From TrEMBL:
Keywords from the named record: SH3 domain
PROSITE patterns in the cross-refs: SH3
Pfam families with a match to the protein in the record: SH3_2
The organism's place on the tree of life at top rank: Bacteria
Domain SH3: 1-61
InterPro entries cross-referenced by the UniProt entry: SH3-like_dom_sf, SH3_domain, UCP034961_SH3_2
Keyword Metal-binding: no
Organism: Endozoicomonas euniceicola
Name of the protein: SH3 domain-containing protein
């Protein structure tokens, strides 16, 4: 697995991350202007957040999750080493040295 180093700290702006399971129905809104491939979704419990377009599909006028997902972001500090577990749409799902997981923008690392 690949290890990266944080060159610009990241702080999540979303204290209540969305999550959904494969097969869940979702409401879909706008596409992200800053990061291509991300769309605003609302889950059944009314929580709203960003999700990757690749994880949802339209079936008979209903948006359905085709993969399970959590939008949890990880707060990072400059110099921190992270293990990359998944990369998608200019973001990476990482693990830090304290066994915490979350998404961070790829552009904040080298």
């Amino acid at each position: 697995m690949k290890t990266i180093t944080v060159i610009k700290s990241h702080r999540s702006n979303y204290p209540n991350p969305i999550s959904f399971e494969k097969g869940d129905l979702l409401s879909v809104g706008v596409h992200d202007d800053e990061y291509a491939g991300w769309v605003r979704v609302t889950t059944r419990d009314g929580n709203e957040g960003w999700a990757p377009e690749q994880y949802i599909e339209l079936h008979s006028d209903q948006w359905i999750a085709i993969e399970s997902y959590s939008s949890k972001e990880l707060n990072t500090t400059v110099g921190e080493k992270l293990l990359v577990l998944h990369e998608l749409n200019e973001w990476v799902w990482v693990q830090n040295s304290h066994d915490r997981y979350g998404w961070i923008p790829l552009k904040t690392t080298k």
